[in-house]
Amino acid sequence: MRSEAELEGVTLLGNNKTQYKTTYSPEVLEKFPNKHPGNDYMVTFNCPEFTSLCPKTGQPDFAEIKINYIPDQYLVESKSLKLYMFSFRNHGDFHEDCVNIIMKDLVKLLNPKYIEVEGIFMPRGGISLYPFANYGKPGTEFEAIAKTRLFAAIDRRK
Amino acid sequence: MRSEAELEGVTLLGNNKTQYKTTYSPEVLEKFPNKHPGNDYMVTFNCPEFTSLCPKTGQPDFAEIKINYIPDQYLVESKSLKLYMFSFRNHGDFHEDCVNIIMKDLVKLLNPKYIEVEGIFMPRGGISLYPFANYGKPGTEFEAIAKTRLFAAIDRRK
Amino acid sequence: MRSEAELEGVTLLGNNKTQYKTTYSPEVLEKFPNKHPGNDYMVTFNCPEFTSLCPKTGQPDFAEIKINYIPDQYLVESKSLKLYMFSFRNHGDFHEDCVNIIMKDLVKLLNPKYIEVEGIFMPRGGISLYPFANYGKPGTEFEAIAKTRLFAAIDRRK
Amino acid sequence: MRSEAELEGVTLLGNNKTQYKTTYSPEVLEKFPNKHPGNDYMVTFNCPEFTSLCPKTGQPDFAEIKINYIPDQYLVESKSLKLYMFSFRNHGDFHEDCVNIIMKDLVKLLNPKYIEVEGIFMPRGGISLYPFANYGKPGTEFEAIAKTRLFAAIDRRK
Amino acid sequence: MRSEAELEGVTLLGNNKTQYKTTYSPEVLEKFPNKHPGNDYMVTFNCPEFTSLCPKTGQPDFAEIKINYIPDQYLVESKSLKLYMFSFRNHGDFHEDCVNIIMKDLVKLLNPKYIEVEGIFMPRGGISLYPFANYGKPGTEFEAIAKTRLFAAIDRRK
Amino acid sequence: MRSEAELEGVTLLGNNKTQYKTTYSPEVLEKFPNKHPGNDYMVTFNCPEFTSLCPKTGQPDFAEIKINYIPDQYLVESKSLKLYMFSFRNHGDFHEDCVNIIMKDLVKLLNPKYIEVEGIFMPRGGISLYPFANYGKPGTEFEAIAKTRLFAAIDRRK
Amino acid sequence: MRSEAELEGVTLLGNNKTQYKTTYSPEVLEKFPNKHPGNDYMVTFNCPEFTSLCPKTGQPDFAEIKINYIPDQYLVESKSLKLYMFSFRNHGDFHEDCVNIIMKDLVKLLNPKYIEVEGIFMPRGGISLYPFANYGKPGTEFEAIAKTRLFAAIDRRK
Amino acid sequence: MRSEAELEGVTLLGNNKTQYKTTYSPEVLEKFPNKHPGNDYMVTFNCPEFTSLCPKTGQPDFAEIKINYIPDQYLVESKSLKLYMFSFRNHGDFHEDCVNIIMKDLVKLLNPKYIEVEGIFMPRGGISLYPFANYGKPGTEFEAIAKTRLFAAIDRRK
Amino acid sequence: MRSEAELEGVTLLGNNKTQYKTTYSPEVLEKFPNKHPGNDYMVTFNCPEFTSLCPKTGQPDFAEIKINYIPDQYLVESKSLKLYMFSFRNHGDFHEDCVNIIMKDLVKLLNPKYIEVEGIFMPRGGISLYPFANYGKPGTEFEAIAKTRLFAAIDRRK
Amino acid sequence: MRSEAELEGVTLLGNNKTQYKTTYSPEVLEKFPNKHPGNDYMVTFNCPEFTSLCPKTGQPDFAEIKINYIPDQYLVESKSLKLYMFSFRNHGDFHEDCVNIIMKDLVKLLNPKYIEVEGIFMPRGGISLYPFANYGKPGTEFEAIAKTRLFAAIDRRK
Ligand SMILES: [Ca+2]
Ligand SMILES: [Ca+2]
Ligand SMILES: [Ca+2]
Ligand SMILES: [Ca+2]
Ligand SMILES: [Ca+2]
Ligand SMILES: [Ca+2]
Ligand SMILES: [Ca+2]
Ligand SMILES: [Ca+2]
Ligand SMILES: [Ca+2]
Ligand SMILES: [Ca+2]
Ligand SMILES: [Ca+2]
Ligand SMILES: [Ca+2]
Ligand SMILES: [Ca+2]
Ligand SMILES: [Ca+2]
Ligand SMILES: [Ca+2]
Ligand SMILES: [Ca+2]
Q1: Among residues G54, G72, G93, G97, which one is catalytic?
Q2: Number of structural domains, chain F?
């Protein structure tokens, strides 16, 4: 079990004054130290409750966002991730832009070895759009892996 | 969020004078600039509402068209893609030809790093036909990847 | 096996001069005699390849049409039903109107004991619309059954 | 366990001289006595390997046949049912006719309290056809139940 | 196809000045005349893109809303229904309240013979909550049917 | 929680000298008192590990057995039910007979208000056989319900 | 939206001092007033995170608990329901007993018009056990409905 | 759209004198020119209506045949493929032999760059048999790919 | 079709004196010559009817056994494989041992180029155990492939 | 079948004095010798009944734990694995920590050639978290394979 010192920086979990921001707020993201740096491992988040706005018409869009990353020194705290996701609620951007922005914010927060972000957006006009972006830390083997992973999300959809 | 300049060339989205062409019209396709050229990423479209005609008998055919591409400088605007897809409505061609034509039109529009197009056609005479075509930009690593990807659509079908 | 006399009126099946009409054409429907009038039975058609147009915007719509009927003296010939369904291709009407029209045309053709027609239309604007209409021949027990059957399609969708 | 007397009339099961007839042969059906006449019960057969011919074009058709019955004095032996089903292989008839014929042959063999037969035929021309016929023994409560059961197969399909 | 007169009152469909309200706005709902008053029929809407707020904590909630109704003189226009659904975006209420409010607003707009509304809300704290409300017009047979329908949504969930 | 007195008669649960009989052994069944006689309730068992032998050829058969009952004074203990099911391992009987025998043994043990037993047997010769038997205690309302329940298992299979 | 008065009695929602009891604690359940007493409606809870102990061996058991009820004057608050469910964590009882206890506690709290509780327990020894209990308020039509609902859970399982 | 010259050799499509052969007839296969030789692409056929006979007992067998190939100069015409498949109807051979024969006949017809054929046969005696054969044109990269593809069909089955 | 010479050694197929052994009997396995030695191909068997005993407690275990192999000179005859599988009925061994034994017996019989065997055992104590063993003929490329295939069964399970 | 010597060290299987510990107890794990050291093989465990506590709030968490390993000299005994899993019942730790701890305990017990552990945790706050950790024995080829396997769990989820 984690000591209190190991939980330093985790301020939102179990806190009852939660503020739900609805404009893009990357500053709500929190991290805590990775206690298993000796072995690389993968952490997956499934976020089926994402909504944003169309940047041209203002119409609400809905998506399931999937995140996979290999941590280096830090892990993202999941309640802060929830609040970050909710902060897109009144933000207008194309689907392709939202997915790239989420990936870049998490790279900035965590400096992970690897990360990928996928958006499964609900159809508009009879067509569905699913962007997938990823990143491998330069100078690690994950830089090359990122390129081969571009096709992974395609193949797990039926 | 995109500035107006970043949306230049996007004329169909939110426009209420939409014309639904029903003869093959590649000219309706529109593109807009990719704001994330620093990292390769994949964009997927699912188009379950495709219909064309048999080139010999005139009988309507129905398919789900799936498109995956890695953009270079441009992204295809999704409403224009919808209108392009609808323009096959009175066009007669074999399933294998339709899929290759769609792929070539998008290569011409976007000059992407990579693209693949798959057609899941409804059965005729107790047999279903699913063509899959792809393209990797010459001189990039995606030229070789295209060859290995020929088998990808097979393996994600159950 | 049916004698030639029992196939009288069936002109489209196996005919190679098939004309695919694309404007509403109820006159293509054909019927043939029911050889089992001694026992009531149900005949089901699943038609996943239906397309029509929005009556206001002209945008193509797509649906799966499901038909269930209890014949009296006649059965509808399935190839003629296919041609009838295809004839909505350039017809513009609301989803609710298409389903009611199909039901009424089949009542007129077959004078069946019972019939129900359901349309599973593809979503528009994030909402799907499924109309369900039915009919029980006046003076039979199916008149009352028709009312209770209004809820049947709801409950078989998950 | 059944005594030999209780298996009298069962000649095909475990017999290695099996003849696979391919023209309609209701005479291959065999029955054996019901040992549980004190309580009504239901027996279900799923036969996913049915094939016949189109009566007009000769094209092979394929179906899954589902049979449900409440026995009275006799049960149908399952290997003989298999051979009966196989005997439609070179028989030409409309889907609606095949299903009614199977039901009537089993009524003749078993004189059951109740029986229903459903055919799930593979699509032709983009349309699937599923006939459903049933029978309740006159003078029993199953005569009335048969009428309400006409809608049962519809509602269990999704 | 509908004449212009038959489309009177439909102002939002095909209109490019769409305003997406995000506070509860029942006034955006529009209706048009039912052209098939001679036969009762069912109209179903599936709305998987509903979001509202928790009335106590302000946390966003997400749901799929399902609506089934039997029209009397009017049908609800589907684009106006979409805008109405979107108007709950910044509205705070318990799940049970949202579902009852939607039902009552549609009763007021359409005065239908029958209507039912179901909400499939995403889980909170490991528990999912699905409210189901309905209404049958007083003095019609649907008043009694409404009571038996209270159990319908339960039984179609697996 | 149950007192020791309330567990009297439960000898197999937690006992490490379990004997797995492989010839039909109805005597292994154990029961314990129903503590909720004030309200009728349903108890369901799913037993996917049933195997017996063909009475004529000796070939092993496999099935999933489903049991539903409304208790009166007693409940069957689930470990004893497991041992009873396993005791059919070297027993030869037709599928229809196995299902009726299981039902009758449980009626004898429990004297329940209602019980039904269904067998989902693996296919032989391309055909699957599913028997369904039930019982309602004479003089209760479940006697009549048993008759209508004969069709229940059919309709929940897809 | 609910006024503060309408939320009186709701003490756990949004409270950050949540205590997770692990011995049976019916006293944690909270209720709030039903604002829609004019129309009967159904409220469903899905609780896939239930765990208790075997009363004889102490082995942990796991289940999904499903609750459906028609409120009268009160609704159960969902966070308090979560805490109540968690309080079975170190409680030992047979599956049949747990389900009846949950139903009775909710009847006592809410005095609802109707309630049903189902437990989908994980298999033990190759057999799964699913109890289903229900209650209709004496003197209402739901008293009779409760008896017919005993079979509902069986039929929605596949 | 294809010109008449580009359809030369296609004699069966749209022809109403179709003969359905039921003894192995590789001569019915027809081909037409590939108009997209500049890019390799994959063509998939799903044939769920295959039936043949056991070479020793004469019992009918049923299978779904799946074909994937990369064309070189020619494509197989789909109606001729249907007739070829139907010609196995009275042909007796082991499952493993049927699949290899189909592959070899298509290699002979098309001289493709790559081809694979899979048979999903219905179970016999409680066991299902699925053969998978493939071929890569000697001297191309597909010769080596064929060997790695031997495992592909296994892994896409669940 | 196979000549009689090509069927030499196949003694069980179509034979009516089948003996069902219930103690481990590898000697019942039969083989016949591979007629397609020019191209490597894969043969898959699905055996969902496997049962054995726990070596310590004697409790029956149930599994689905999956076999994939690339033949060299011989194929295993499927009826003999069925009898071999049934012979584990009274054999006691750990799951991991059963799967390794089956693989080794088939290697001994067939001397195949490659083989893999997987067991999907039913859960015990809330945990399922799935062993997977394989073999590549020494001196062939399949020796190395066998090592990479160790992970294949994991990834096709969902 | 295993001799008694080969079962030495297996003390929990078939033992009726089972103690269910609820605080983290790695000492309950037991192992037995691998009888097939000549061929590498994979052993998979699916454990859908895992529960632990949130380290900060104390709220119970639920998960399905999946374990895959290639044994060297030892196999883990499955009943002891069950007891080990149950011992997390009152242990508080983050999801990422639980999965890494389980993996490390099994490495310590078995010194396997390869192992991977995945946790499919139930959603909290609308987000699901799935950690995946693995290990390849240093100096074997599995050390490198472990790195590529980090992505395996992602791709088998749909
Ligand atoms: Ca996906
Ligand atoms: Ca479709
Ligand atoms: Ca596909
Ligand atoms: Ca439906
Ligand atoms: Ca089939
Ligand atoms: Ca069906
Ligand atoms: Ca959603
Ligand atoms: Ca969920
Ligand atoms: Ca539902
Ligand atoms: Ca099974
Ligand atoms: Ca069933
Ligand atoms: Ca669970
Ligand atoms: Ca259930
Ligand atoms: Ca397959
Ligand atoms: Ca598997
Ligand atoms: Ca998974």
Answers
A1: G54
A2: 1
